[in-house]
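4.2 Preliminary Data

To establish feasibility before requesting continued support, the project team ran the inverse folding procedure on a target of 225 residues. The structure was first converted into the token representation described in Section 3, and no sequence information of any kind was made available to the design step. The complete token record follows.
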């Protein structure tokens, strides 16, 4: 019996496995899907070390936002263990003003949701409930650790040209935190990188447009190395 490859999904700040709920279910036929825990450490380096320690052998790696920065750190530490890499809603340079605003939202959920989802989804109560429930599960203490990690994250741009595994970069057309122009620049810096921009989508692509994200991840998983 051929063993399925391991696929590791890394969530973003204030997110947990709930971010990937549709992908975990819909990719199970292609891979053994695991979700990393990025709530216990306060640096990108420590998060990457914990993920690596919890995993055997080689794996495919997909990171969203904060998880993407951790994925890039894993690539620096153990590139031979990563069979393929996907970065969703990630900008590899130093912090952006929009990310700081997201990390320090005004009271209430609406200001943060304005940065996270497409304007047409602001009235989606189910989506707001999913996002709020994840934030509650992550909690304030873990959120503060994640904030420290993001604000001190390394600049990953110098190492992009050295990535050699099958690579996908994905983002929403209307994402104010990882704009398509920045994703295009990142894709141009990585040999053979595939760029996927999802229309009518903000930052939280795995929840806003789960079918499109799953389809892109399936194509990436079967792409020949």
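Position-by-position output of the design step:
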């Amino acid at each position: 019996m051929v063993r399925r490859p391991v696929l590791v999904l890394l969530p973003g700040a204030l997110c947990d496995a709930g971010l990937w709920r549709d992908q975990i279910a819909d990719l199970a036929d292609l891979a053994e899907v695991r979700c990393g825990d990025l709530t216990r450490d306060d640096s990108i380096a420590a998060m990457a070390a914990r993920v690596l320690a919890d995993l055997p052998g080689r794996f495919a790696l997909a990171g969203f936002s904060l998880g993407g920065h951790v994925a890039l750190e894993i690539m620096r530490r153990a590139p031979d263990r990563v069979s393929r890499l996907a970065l969703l809603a990630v900008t590899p340079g130093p912090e952006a003003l929009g990310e700081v605003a997201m990390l320090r939202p005004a009271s209430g959920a609406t200001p943060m949701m304005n940065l996270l989802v497409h304007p047409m989804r602001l009235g989606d109560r189910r989506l707001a409930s999913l996002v709020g429930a994840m934030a509650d599960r992550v909690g304030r203490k873990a959120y503060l650790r994640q904030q420290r990690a993001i604000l001190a994250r390394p600049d990953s741009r110098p190492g992009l040209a050295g990535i050699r595994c099958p690579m996908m970069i994905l983002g929403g057309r209307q994402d104010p935190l990882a704009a398509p122009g920045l994703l295009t620049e990142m894709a141009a810096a990585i040999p053979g990188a595939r760029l996927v921009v999802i229309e009518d989508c903000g930052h939280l692509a795995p929840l806003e447009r789960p079918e499109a994200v799953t389809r892109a991840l399936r194509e990436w998983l079967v792409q020949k190395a």
